[in-house]
Design goal:
single chain; alpha/beta; Aspartate Aminotransferase, domain 1; Aspartate Aminotransferase, domain 2; 2 domains; seven-stranded mixed beta sheet; globular; binds ligand 7TS
């Protein structure tokens, strides 16, 4: 460990020890060591998370919240402990504000459908930003169309920074909710959320934050951000797929109708009517993804053991190293140069199609994503078909950056 700006940073050998916790990173792809740079799509999983899932099925498996039997009670306790871990991780005030979902998309859909049923009328507006993933556009598009309401867009500049100066002008008494990403998945821009929520608060408008790309890389405190909803996915932060979190302020969740009906979300049912369970269960119909919640709790422990500040510094070091090494290559063009960035390196090589470059990188063991990254409006604004995206995690290392550089040089040579 070394002290850097009061953060205890792991040294190179400690980072290598963390890396060794990820069994898949020992794999070879097409005869080369795997260089996994598609972390924004999904992260890899440490053996601790994998073991939690195995242990669950070998020693704990029972349905939660229903059995009188011992196993069901142990399983319920573990599941509810996972909720409390998620609550502490984002500093929510109460466990009642933590809803288990399938992931970010599911969490945004939950809010869009439930909120719009209660609060959206013809002529109303929902404000999103020009940087959103399709998951934070399409649900709002569906519900605004259903309700005769409209979608408004906060624009950005060519660096990929939101034009915050226009935010107040886009808000009116028709604006019912604002939905904005914390971090852009295709350009890596970190948006100034506290500034946005401060202005929204003055108008009394609730704010939903899509935190899918923030939570794996930054310390997130929903009370400090002062947002009303915050959504994220377990699988992008070392956890399993199929589990995510919706944080919602109790004041809103209490006023919103259930999203889905079924077991667990009710207090009583007859053929005329039903009464709903208390929070958070009102929004959790059916048997939940129990081992997913337990795996997510282990992932949170893992991240907190390293420390979000150390993770952020490590990832930005790798991002800057990669940017430095690649920017001299012929035709290299960075896409997304906001002043506040996360470790997402989106780029183009002049004259080459991103897909062709991606295929040649893969042939040399380097996994990147190419295309529009589920942000077609961002690509339309930039007037490009897509980008090549290398997204970093703390378990990447300098050798990964060098292998990316070598593979990209070769791809350029072959394709030019
Ligand atoms: N919001 C953002 C900002 C995202 O990056 C993603 C997934 C989602 C929402 C949806 O998350 P899900 O877990 O519900 O699928 N982003 C990406 C990506 O960048 N590459 O693959 C998936």
């Amino acid at each position: 460990m070394k002290l850097n700006n009061k953060i205890l940073l792991p040294d190179a050998s400690e980072w290598e020890r963390y890396r060794n916790d990820f069994p898949i990173l020992k794999k070879r792809i097409n005869g080369y060591p795997l260089v996994y740079l598609d972390n924004a799509a999904t992260s890899q999983k440490p053996r601790q998370v994998i073991q939690t899932i195995v242990d669950y099925y070998e020693t704990l498996n029972a349905n939660v919240h229903r059995g009188v039997h011992t196993l069901s009670q142990i399983s319920t306790d573990a599941f509810e402990q996972a909720r409390i871990k998620a609550q502490a991780f984002i500093n929510a005030e109460s466990h009642r504000e933590i809803i288990f979902t399938k992931g970010t998309s599911n969490a945004i859909n939950l809010v869009a459908y439930s909120f719009s049923r209660a609060f959206l009328s013809p002529g109303d507006e929902v404000l999103v930003s020009a940087l959103e993933h399709h998951s934070n556009i399409v649900p709002w598009q569906i519900v605004t169309k259903e309700r005769g309401a409209h979608l408004r867009i906060l624009p950005m500049n060519e660096k990929g920074e939101l034009l915050i100066g226009q935010f107040s002008n886009l808000i009116s008494d028709k604006t019912k909710i604002i939905a904005i990403s914390h971090v852009s998945n295709s350009l890596g821009t970190v948006n100034p959320i506290s500034e946005l929520t401060r202005i929204a608060r003055q108008h009394g408008i609730p704010v939903l934050i899509d935190g899918a790309q923030a939570v794996p890389h930054l310390k997130v405190d929903v009370q400090a951000l002062d947002c009303d909803f915050y959504c994220f996915s377990g699988h992008k932060m070392l956890g399993p797929t199929g589990i995510g979190i919706l944080f919602g302020k109790e004041e809103w969740l209490n006023k919103m109708p259930p999203f889905e009906g079924g077991g667990e979300m009710i207090q009583s049912v007859n053929y005329n009517d039903s009464t709903y369970n208390e929070l958070p269960f009102k929004f959790e119909a059916g048997t939940p993804h129990i081992e997913g919640a337990l795996g997510l709790a282990t992932a949170i422990d893992y991240l907190l053991h390293i420390g979000m500040d150390s993770i952020h510094q490590r990832e930005m070091f790798l991002y800057k190293l990669a940017l430095n090494r690649l920017s001299d290559l012929p035709g290299f063009k960075l896409v997304g140069s906001a002043s506040d960035k996360s470790p997402v390196l989106s780029f183009l090589i002049d004259g080459l199609h991103p897909y062709d470059v991606g295929v040649l990188l893969d042939k040399q063991g380097v996994a990147v994503r190419t295309g529009h990254h589920c942000t077609q409006p961002v690509m339309d604004f930039m007037q490009i078909p897509g980008t090549i995206r290398a997204s970093f995690s703390f378990y990447n290392n300098e050798d990964d950056v060098l292998q990316l550089e070598a593979a990209l040089k070769k791809a350029i040579q072959i394709l030019s």
